[in-house]
Automatic annotation (TrEMBL):
<protein>
    <recommendedName>
        <fullName>SMP-30/Gluconolactonase/LRE-like region domain-containing protein</fullName>
    </recommendedName>
</protein>
<dbReference type="InterPro" id="IPR011044">
    <property type="entry name" value="Quino_amine_DH_bsu"/>
</dbReference>
<dbReference type="InterPro" id="IPR015943">
    <property type="entry name" value="WD40/YVTN_repeat-like_dom_sf"/>
</dbReference>
<feature type="signal peptide">
    <location>
        <begin position="1"/>
        <end position="23"/>
    </location>
</feature>
<keyword id="KW-0732">Signal</keyword>
<dbReference type="InterPro" id="IPR051200">
    <property type="entry name" value="Host-pathogen_enzymatic-act"/>
</dbReference>
Length: 322
């Protein structure tokens, strides 16, 4: 076969495989390389100060909220920081010298000092969702709040990380869910309207609205982009961190009820119930493999110290797939 004919055939096969939508490699969760299993079950994780942080969910609901768990990445040792009187299932933000935990049932943001592992401040905040979504950076703590108990409208409230004082209240066009701070902006997923809002921390105003697929919720930053995981169809949309342009829409694992997304190690990672790990290559904007099957792990995911960390019945430290 001539070189020209070979190239034509190769191009044809590439087009056919693209049109047929050949699936990414699918593997069982047992093929993941487990580096450590830390006996703490729960959800809502963060990574910072050389540690993995997670809200622990006690086995007995009558016990109320569990502790904030800190796992030292150097040796996987665990420190439990009691927060039992503040409710359960709390999200968190890490940065500005602290770990920030929204205690939604008490309408408070808790500031944890990573040097002492102590609760050092309580900031009043009426959060609009039970998850208490929060972003940290650009000199602020950014929390989705409700303007009053009589409405479910969403406001992005900016708090001073030193004093806890309210510095700005920014109305949003839609009920919103996820917050991330990067590329000199604050980014918020407009869950109700299928939008992404970009906020300028200098003017404290929404400066652009980016149309996405339905029910965008989970959000991450990295690889020069913002990445949004849409619950309606499980697609991931990539947004340029400088221009706000939608660069790609990536088919992944289908409709989601829960889930999480994070960047790290040169890849974008998804975790969801029944799919503990799905791996996106940002060089090609494609899903390259996913690990699928019911089991003890899957939902929240973080990257740190060269590892993936996945929540579930325990905290699972995983070697990232090549």
């Amino acid at each position: 076969m001539s070189t020209v004919k070979a190239l034509i055939l190769l191009s044809f096969l590439t087009l056919v495989s693209s049109d047929l939508g050949f699936a990414a490699e699918e593997l069982p969760p047992g093929s993941l390389t487990l580096q450590a299993e830390i006996p703490r079950g729960g959800d809502f994780m963060g990574f910072g100060f050389d540690s993995l942080w997670m809200m622990n969910q006690p086995s007995d609901p009558a016990l109320g909220g569990g502790p904030l768990v800190r796992v030292n990445a150097a040796d996987n040792s665990v420190t439990d920081i009691p927060l039992g009187s503040y409710g359960k299932y709390r999200a968190m933000g890490i940065g500005e010298g602290a770990v920030w935990v929204p205690a939604t049932t008490r309408d408070l943001i808790l500031r944890i000092d990573p040097n002492t592992n102590k609760l050092v401040q309580e900031i009043p905040a009426q959060m609009v969702e039970s998850e208490g979504n929060i972003g940290v950076g650009e000199g602020g703590i950014w929390v989705l709040t409700a303007p009053s108990s009589a409405t479910r409208d969403t406001v992005l409230t900016r708090y001073n990380p030193g004093t806890g004082a309210v510095e700005a209240e920014i109305p949003l066009p839609s009920a919103s869910a996820g917050v991330v701070v990067d590329f000199g902006s604050v980014w918020v997923t407009g869950f109700e309207n299928g939008e992404l809002y970009r906020i300028d921390p200098k003017s404290n105003a929404v400066i652009s609205t980016i149309k996405l697929h339905d029910r965008p919720r989970f959000i991450a930053s990295g690889e020069s982009s913002i990445w949004v995981l849409n619950q309606s169809d499980g697609t991931v949309q990539r947004i340029d961190g400088k221009t706000g342009e939608v660069l790609a829409t990536i088919e992944t694992i289908g409709r989601l009820d829960g889930g999480d997304i994070v960047c790290g190690g040169g890849y974008v990672w998804i975790s969801a119930p029944r799919t503990p790990v799905a791996q996106i290559d940002p060089k090609t904007n494609t899903l390259v493999r996913h690990f699928t099957g019911s089991g003890p792990m899957g939902d929240a995911i973080r990257y740190g110290a060269g590892s993936l960390w996945i929540s579930g019945k325990a905290i699972y430290r995983i070697q990232p797939p090549d």
